[in-house]
């Protein structure tokens, strides 16, 4: 039996549903999700292995006009994945009936690639069926797409067709990762991202994009089924620190409580989580801080 394998990147503007799609395709929550743009800051690789194929999916930050060094890093790593993959899933929103400047900018970058480029129209559950045809007509001439596939990642609609089309164009190749491997991301990094996800969900718009999470300790207790995790949450202003901590520490406790549930699900063991909030003005423009938080090449 022929075995196929290859690398697939998901690319698109911020907040089009890239992380939701990644999690649905892999069947596990690996990438954090939020309705706020620029949620993903690093490339996240997940592995789907079946009898006759192995697909390594790469989620990337949304391509946007950067405002600081962190933004520049995010755009650079999103663009750098394009030359390393067999298939590019160019994800757009069905609710954007016509391509905007961001979509056109991305399409221009994709024209020179050797990879198979799929146009994947997400969130079709938010429009009627007649509108889907209009969206396809408006986007399909951006470049020569290998396939055009409407989906709803949130409802898992169209994902089996998408997966079939990906496998169809993959080359014959080796098994790059073990059968039971879901991601190449260290558990420590995923834990930090899960904490950041809770902040994105719980805290007002002005705060989250100035927040970074550093795991200080991550160790299993001897002879006990429990992992001790200590983490710093960095923000850029004293006023943001006050919001993150909340009255009588209630917000920080809520962030910790919700994070602990997801981290325990990830690790399959009990977790004791301690969080601290520290102010680092303009840390997103500090090369040293970006390196500390894992946002550097």
Summarize the structure.
Helix content is 34%, strand content 23%.
**CATH homologous superfamily grouping of the largest domain:** P-loop containing nucleotide triphosphate hydrolases
CATH architecture of the largest domain: 3-Layer(aba) Sandwich
The count of β-strands is: 9
Enumerate the strands of the largest sheet in spatial order, edge to edge or round the barrel.
Answer: 2-3-1-4-5-6
How many domains? The number is 2
Distance separating the two termini: 39 Å
Encode the helix/strand succession as letters: EHEEHEHEHEHHEEHHEH
Overall mean pLDDT score? 84
CATH class of the largest domain: Alpha Beta
The structure class reads alpha/beta
Reported by name, the CATH topology of the largest domain is Rossmann fold
Q: How much helicity do the residues have?
A: 25-40%
Q: Count of helical segments? A: 9
Radius of gyration: 20 Å
Instruction: Please state roughly what percent of the residues sit in beta strands, choosing from under 5%, 5-15%, 15-25%, 25-35%, 35-45% or over 45%.
Output: 15-25%
Runs in which pLDDT lies below 50 for 5 or more consecutive residues are 32-41
Most strands sheet = 6 strands, mixed
User: What overall form do the CA principal axes indicate?
Assistant: globular
